[in-house]
């Protein structure tokens, strides 16, 4: 009888050891999902066409009609985003009409034409020249006998911090020049961002 409790204790100990031996520590499963980088669409993407017009008091207080029309131009070199997706670059046609409805200025602007007019020391880097696109041209202000516009260049992904606004000036003689807006002038930045 004295052996029975010892045998029971031994059997219980064996069962406990066996039970614990069967339970191995749980292994954490790590699941790695397959991620494919989307392949660029072989068809170039394009921004929508836009058209805008406004009346501007200009030479001798007469009111001129400024018309701006943007479209994705098939004839221009393609630009590409960081994933290799290609986009059609834009062209912007500017027409300035006198009060008597005769055309004073009529010109189609492209990114390359604007960049070529910049002074050598204000040129844009090669990547920006190649992969940025002409986003828009918008009227900013009348400055004496010049109309001042902002010509916005940016990457197709539309990174606001990387946008470059070129200062496009149209003289009362119909000549146009391009310069960079001063980076340190708050008023110009406020006007360009349409802030009050």
Descriptive labels:
196 residues, alpha+beta, 4-stranded antiparallel β-sheet, 36% strand, rod-shaped, disordered C terminus
In words, what does this structure look like?
This protein is of the alpha+beta class and 196 residues long. It has four helices and ten strands; from the N terminus they run H-E-E-E-E-E-E-H-H-E-E-E-E-H. The protein has helices at 3-22, 111-117, 126-131, 186-192, and strands at residues 50-57, 63-72, 79-80, 86-87, 90-97, 103-110, 133-143, 146-154, 164-171, 176-180. It has a four-stranded antiparallel sheet with strand order 1-2-5-6. The longest helix has 20 residues, at 3-22. Mean pLDDT is 82; it is low at 184-196.
Structural class assignment: alpha+beta
Spans where pLDDT lies below 50 across 5 or more residues: 184-196
Percentage of helical residues?
Answer: 10-25%
Helix count equals 4
Computed over alpha carbons, the radius of gyration is 34 Å
Order of helices and strands: HEEEEEEHHEEEEH
- Main β-sheet, in a few words? 4 strands, antiparallel
Strand order of the largest sheet: 1-2-5-6
């Amino acid at each position: 009888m004295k052996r029975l409790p010892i045998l029971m204790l031994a059997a219980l100990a064996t069962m406990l050891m066996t039970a614990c031996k069967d339970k191995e520590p749980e292994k954490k499963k790590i699941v790695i999902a397959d991620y494919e980088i989307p392949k660029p669409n072989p068809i170039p993407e394009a921004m929508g066409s836009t058209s805008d017009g406004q009346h501007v008091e200009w030479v001798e207080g007469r009111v001129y009609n400024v018309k701006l029309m943007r479209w994705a131009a098939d004839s221009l070199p393609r630009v590409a985003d960081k994933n290799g997706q290609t986009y059609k670059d834009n062209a912007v046609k500017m027409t300035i009409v006198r009060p008597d409805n005769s055309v004073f200025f009529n010109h189609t602007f492209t990114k390359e034409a604007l960049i070529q007019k910049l002074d050598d020391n204000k040129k844009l880097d090669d990547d920006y020249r190649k992969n940025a696109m002409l986003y828009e041209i918008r009227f900013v202000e009348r400055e004496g006998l010049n109309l001042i516009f902002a010509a916005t260049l940016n990457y197709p992904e539309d990174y606001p911090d990387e946008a470059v606004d070129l200062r496009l000036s149209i003289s009362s003689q119909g000549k146009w020049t391009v310069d960079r807006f001063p980076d340190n002038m708050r008023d110009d930045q406020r006007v360009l961002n349409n802030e009050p």
